[in-house]
Amino acid sequence: MTFKYGKKDKLKSKKHIEQLFNEGKAVTVYPLRLIYLETEFSDGSLLKTGVSVSKRLHKTAVARNSLKRLLREAYRLNKPVYFNNSSTPYAFMILYLSKDGTTFDELNGKMKLLFKKFLDKTSKNEKTAP
């Protein structure tokens, strides 16, 4: 897996996003929440990810876009480290929950904790499944 976050890695399908919010499970490491759902993609990709920052908490587009750029960059850098051996396709939505801004270093650290928590949770579910 490479350090890319290209077009095929982005979650854009309204159907998948709606299904993700209706049926997905969540993991939270404040100020981030990862909503995930095991699903199949028509293009055969393993991970599709979207990022979201609340308009209610961050009024200006400049603030929202800045946080979304930081989220995408932190995801892009950590994806190969945590999901290199993954063979299960997942849809992800990463939400930024805090009203305050942040730095890239803080966000990157929280992203690593979020992915560790996700992998712990999904590996336990795989072990308990018959």
Characterization of the model:
With 130 residues, the protein is α+β, with helices and mostly antiparallel strands. It has one domain: Ribosomal Protein S5, domain 2 (2-Layer Sandwich). 45% of the residues lie in helices and 20% in strands. The chain is built from 3 helices and 4 strands, in the order αβββαβα. It has a 4-stranded mixed sheet. The longest helix is centred in the last third of the chain and has 25 residues, at 104-128. The protein is globular, with a radius of gyration of 14 Å.
If classified by CATH, what would the architecture be? 2-Layer Sandwich
Tell me the Rg in angstroms.
14 Å
Number of domains: 1
Largest sheet: spatial strand order: 1-2-4-3
Integer average pLDDT: 91
Structural category is alpha+beta
